[in-house]
Amino acid sequence: MAGIEKVxxxxxxMVYDKEGNVVALDKVGKNYSGTxxxxxxxxxxxxxxxxxxxxxxxxxxxxxxSPKLCGIKWWEAGHGRRYIILLFKxxxxxxxxxxxxxxxxxxxxxxxxxxxxxxxSFDKMLDVFTNEDIQEYIQRKGTDGWTDILK
Length: 151
What we know:
151 residues, mainly beta, 2 helices
């Protein structure tokens, strides 16, 4: 059927405090590494909100409340598949920060993030998290490589 595609849903969350600090994850892995925010895959039949709450807990030890959807990132991965990352943020959390098998987690100033070794394309995702006029980040692959589009 035309117009039907397989979609893989993921999530990411910016946990922040009143002083301008955010929880960052120095992610280790073969496919995706560098400094980023916590997040991961949405499991089958799992709500999007529940999935981001679970992922933040697994990767940071924090229990977040009331994550707000602030944007999306998507790209086509070939073979009729599209990856969609739902971007959330919250300043409501409890618990103690701890590292996980995903990498080291730490508090840092939001402004300091851009000078770190960021995960691929995370600099553009930061624009979605921090600029209320941007809700969508699209990556399109062309003959000359990837093109970034912010809307």
